[in-house]
Amino acid sequence: MSDLLLLGLIGGLTLLLLLTLLAFAGYSGLLAGVTVSAGSPPIRNVTVAYKFHMGPYGETGRLFTESCSISPKLRSIAVYYDNPHMVPPDKCRCAVGSILSEGEESPSPELIDLYQKFGFKVFSFPAPSHVVTATFPYTTILSIWLATRRVHPALDTYIKARKLCAYPRPDPFHVPTGTAGRLLCA
């Protein structure tokens, strides 16, 4: 009787573990759709502090952690230059960091100095007139892995179906809060 009880307990715990992993994957975006649209950009002029990375996009987590540890209240940003479905993982390039300011405001010199002290470079992006954006939930580290496999194909399909001229092509602009996009030419 005790062997049967032990087997039942092991089976129940295994089932509970599998349900927990499935719930975590669902929360991370496994079942979420990718919403793609074209129009005004979700952000305007931005000044960012960033570090460049070449290699698999899955290895960028440490850069997000580093930029967030400097100023946790700032939003994170990443610019992915290459489509991981078309470029070998060791050749994929991106810049990861924090948004220091948006719109017409300028970042404080102290904030710029703080990021530069930790090896970050500072750059200002002008506001594009139109972008293609993709929205995907960012709730866990698994969300990044899921996004790299689902957002690029959704953007490519949308752009090709509407015969849009989107630059950089095929490189998306990704804001880890859940929005990705590409600039559109006029």
TrEMBL record:
GO terms for cellular component: autophagosome membrane; endoplasmic reticulum membrane; nucleus; replication fork. GO terms for biological process: protein-DNA covalent cross-linking repair; reticulophagy. It comes from the Eukaryota. This is Testis expressed 264, ER-phagy receptor.
